Amino acid sequence: MIQSTKNPFIDDSVVKGDDYCPRKMVEERILKKLANGHNLALIGDRRVGKTSTAHYVIDSMKDMYKIDIDLYHIIDPSDIAEAIIDACKKVLDKVWDSKKVLDFARRLTPKLDVTEGGFSFGIDASGQEYKKTLHVAFEFLEETVKRTKGKVVILFDEFQAIKTIKNADAILKYMRGKIQKNARVSFMYVGSIKHDMDHIFRDPDSPFFKQAEIIYFEHIEPNIFFDFIFKRFQSKKITLKREVYDMLSKTCYGITGDIQTFCRVAFDSLKEGQIFDFEAFFFILDIIYKNEQKYFKSILDSKGLTKIQKNLLIQLAGIQNQADIKFFGKDFQKAIGVKSPGAITNALNALEKKEYIYKSDEQYYFSNPFFKEWVLDYRFIIQATAGTLTAGSSITGTRLDFGYRQRMIKHSK
Length: 413
Prior knowledge:
Layout: H1 24-35, E1 40-43, H2 50-60, E2 64-70, H3 77-95, H4 98-107, E3 112-115, E4 118-121, H5 129-147, E5 151-157, H6 168-178, E6 185-191, H7 194-202, E7 213-216, H8 222-233, E8 239-240, H9 242-251, H10 256-269, E9 275-276, H11 278-301, H12 307-318, H13 330-336, H14 341-353, E10 357-360, E11 363-366, H15 369-384, H16 401-412
Parallel strand pairs: 1-6, 1-7, 2-5, 5-6, 8-9
Antiparallel strand pairs: 3-4, 10-11
């Protein structure tokens, strides 16, 4: 019987238990605030561990109920309501007879469609109907709190997503009116788009102005995360070189989720007892390219991006220090192929909206750092074909030889 060592790297879900890398300072701060009944807004970069830390702290508290509301995929107000109801039902099923939960749901107006898969709205919630659907959702929320004993934390994940839907400010105003002061309840709002979250909680014109105390979630300290990663590779007797980890961390902007993605592929691909050096690093990067190249090419081949947006992506990939670049200067405009600063602004906004890049602390980053590396390795051929890779491209491998040699020479000195 063939046995294999379990891959210890998790990059696609909330991490728990031994899979969670502790962040003691921020954990203690969150714990203290929640224990005192404060509302919190946890803001930080995507995939940096905010949600896992929030769950870890809440789950460590005694006699604490967690209502976990994920807003990541919301499109309209009924999605918000259904997310709230779904989260509440998971708690109610633990503290209340399931038949009574269903009876309670059927009595609500507007009516819910009650199926084995859960509850949903059978009405249009796009206009003023959002008030009706949210009214039902908050009735569920109030009933859930009423049926529990002890303290309750209501966790809204990806809270900034509300800003993307119609009537966002009206919805926030309605929600603010429903969120009453209650000694048993704390609200925690987690978000990964800083300017949207800042607008929600810091702008005096926002309905949620000062609704929660803000905690900015910093990247984990490099030595702590290196030790965490190193020990996990040891379960397969793979030795990760510190200088390779530093390069990986820099490549991934220090984002723990992306670092774990790379390590997950490495753990499956490297041999037991192998030294994880620079040669192994590029070997793993090749594998990621091979797995993702079809998708990467489709981005630059896509008609959904203009030539200006494609050129901007290529230029952003090659910039080592954005502080040295005048994004709205004539030289950069010429490189992109535009004649006005407004065209640069529009292209950046479009790429952000499509989630190919994101902005943090006045810097632009690739949402997928491995896409950035792929663009870097292929940029000369990409530029030679006017920003696209056509279906008849001569590229059949996973990276250019000169790119591999160039990087090996640079980082092995």
